[in-house]
Design brief:
Chain lengths: 154, 179
């Protein structure tokens, strides 16, 4: 049976998956802060940005398949998403913090994208080609590695 | 990027932003009420018999102390000290005689599986209850396995809070790693 993938341009696929992940994370944070006010939420540090970025990238790879990357568009989209959506969710205090979130989030997203797709490109010639679980496993490994930068953040 | 792709991307951003804004603003009243209720119940748990808690202006020299509330039987003191991966914010209940009656970590960014264990390690946190501001890691209390820096930060935080009540309120420079 032929595998079905949604046909959409890479930059639009990136925007949709990143916004979806940030929307769900933001809603989770808003609901947790409302109904469980003593909850300790993860801070906006490199591992948090990496977790969100890698989840979005893995979702994109699983849903839309491997596509040619557009690094500049990725950086701009990530900057907008990480700058605006956390501000809307109240996860950053003010506009200057939103700018810092945009800069850090865009850099982390771009680095994660380069590393994840390097791994997926290498695996594409092997037996796991087309396996939808592989992007998530590769993303998990990269996220674990990002823990070394746990103290770097807003 | 074609026009259709740009519309997809912009639509995703705008929809996500609108949903987040609407949900946050819609829940803001409930969030504020729940936060106030949680703060009161948390302070009552930290300082039994404290009843009504009123904020007190802090003009001491200890840079770890960021807020103080007075109750009928003592104080609840907020401290912020540097842990392994950023600042750790804590509330400590201290009775009027300087004895620690309770403590809770309110915010931290410590490493998952290591320093973050301090959030839920009630056995470790309970060791600090009953101390009087002179506790030391390795002597009076144990360190959390694999999280010595976090353990020391928490003990410094509790000692600062107790020192506020006992009068030994001096700058501790207690934000240096492992010191």
């Amino acid at each position: 049976m032929r595998e079905r993938r949604i046909e959409i341009a890479p930059c639009a696929a990136q925007a949709i998956t990143l916004c979806l992940v940030l929307l769900l994370a933001g809603l989770g944070a808003v609901i947790a802060r409302t109904f469980v006010p003593n909850v300790v939420l993860p801070r906006l540090t490199v591992p948090a940005f990496a977790a969100l970025s890698l989840l979005a990238l893995a979702l994109e790879a699983a849903a839309f398949g491997e596509k040619r990357r557009q690094w500049v568009a990725s950086f701009v989209e990530a900057a907008v998403a990480f700058g605006v959506l956390p501000l809307c969710a109240g996860l950053v205090a003010d506009v200057s913090a939103a700018f810092r979130a945009a800069a850090l989030g865009a850099v982390v997203y771009l680095v994660c994208e380069i590393l994840l797709h390097s791994i997926l490109d290498r695996l594409a010639s092997g037996a796991v080609k087309g396996n939808r679980v592989v992007p998530f496993l590769a993303g998990l490994l990269l996220w674990l590695a990002s823990q070394i930068l746990a103290g770097v953040g807003l | 990027m074609t026009r259709r792709d740009a519309v997809w991307a912009a639509g995703a951003f705008l929809l996500a932003a609108a949903v987040l804004l609407v949900v946050r603003l819609g829940l803001s009243g409930t969030a504020e009420a729940n936060r106030a209720a949680e703060q009161q119940s948390m302070m009552e748990a930290l300082l039994p018999g404290g009843s009504t808690f009123l904020p007190v202006d802090y003009d001491g020299e200890d840079e770890n102390i960021t807020a103080v509330w007075s109750g009928e039987t003592g104080y609840v003191i907020e401290t912020v000290v540097d842990g392994y991966a950023g600042p750790i914010r804590m509330w400590t209940g201290v009775s009027s005689d300087g004895t620690v009656t309770g403590l809770v970590v309110r915010d931290m960014g410590e490493t998952l599986g290591l320093g973050r264990e301090a959030l839920t390690d009630t056995g470790y946190l309970a060791e600090l209850v009953g101390t009087d501001g002179t506790a030391e890691v390795g002597q009076d209390v144990d360190a959390i396995t694999g999280a010595t820096v976090t353990s020391r930060a928490i003990v410094r935080s509790v000692n600062s809070a107790a020192a506020y009540v006992t009068g030994a309120d001096v700058s501790t420079s207690a934000t240096e790693w492992g010191g």
